[in-house]
């Protein structure tokens, strides 16, 4: 299995490369890294630098301005889409993990071919108040609904249980309005028996087990090769 890691901030990318060297002891490993902003289009993109050690660099400018222009320094980086990188080859992705400072739904929009073809087995993305600041106007309800059309069921990842979000399980209170809130969302292919195993293995009560038995696929399916 090969791991692909993308980091848009050049400073953080250098730290990533250095950490891999320290931890693994050489450049020979199964981790491929790329300094690029993952988005729904390809070309060049602007990122804004902020936070201690530049750890909060983002594709959206901050609220502080001077003369109508952002106060933060910015730089241009390469922009890529997951469809552009992986869809043509038809390679399967076991786990897609996204955490992009509020731009997670834009990354998923750039992976629509992979998701529609169900080449992604599991995915995890972050939902937070940064979605509002990012300015893309995409909502969690819309993203979960789109993923349902593509054959996925999604859940909030809470400490001891996965809370279902898809279909009739959606509650409007889940959509952030003004709260400061961060939660990971886990999704898997609805018809995949491995989603049942993952759901039950994460932690269940009598109520959540009833959900799994009624809504998730239990019977096995042939194993498929994955990237």
UniProtKB/TrEMBL annotation:
Q: Output the superkingdom of the source species.
A: Eukaryota
Q: Give every Methyltransferase FkbM domain span.
A: 2-131
Under Pfam families, the record lists:
Methyltransf_21
For this UniProt entry, which residues form the secretion signal?
none
Name of the protein described by the UniProt record: Methyltransferase FkbM domain-containing protein
Q: Which organism is it from?
A: Alexandrium catenella
Question: Lineage from the top down?
Answer: Eukaryota, Sar, Alveolata, Dinophyceae, Gonyaulacales
């Amino acid at each position: 299995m090969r791991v692909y890691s993308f980091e848009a901030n050049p400073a953080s990318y250098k730290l990533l490369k250095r950490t891999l060297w320290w931890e693994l002891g050489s450049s020979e490993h199964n981790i491929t890294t790329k300094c690029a902003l993952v988005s729904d289009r390809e070309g060049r993109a602007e990122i804004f630098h902020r936070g201690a050690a530049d750890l909060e660099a983002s594709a959206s400018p901050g609220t502080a301005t001077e003369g109508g222009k952002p106060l933060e320094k910015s730089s241009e980086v390469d922009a890529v889409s997951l469809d552009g990188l992986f869809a043509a080859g038809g390679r399967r992705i076991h786990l897609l993990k996204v955490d992009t400072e509020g731009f997670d739904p834009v990354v998923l929009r750039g992976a629509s071919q992979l998701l529609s073809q169900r080449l992604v087995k599991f995915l995890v993305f972050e939902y937070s108040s940064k979605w509002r600041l990012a300015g893309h106007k995409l909502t969690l309800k819309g993203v979960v609904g789109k993923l349902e059309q593509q054959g996925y069921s999604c859940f909030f990842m809470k400490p001891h249980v996965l809370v279902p979000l898809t279909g009739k399980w959606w509650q409007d209170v889940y959509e952030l309005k003004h709260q400061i809130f961060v939660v990971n969302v886990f999704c898997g292919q609805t018809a995949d028996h491995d989603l049942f195993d993952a759901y039950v293995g994460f932690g269940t009560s009598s109520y959540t087990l009833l959900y799994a038995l009624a809504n998730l696929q239990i019977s096995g399916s042939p194993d498929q090769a994955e990237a």
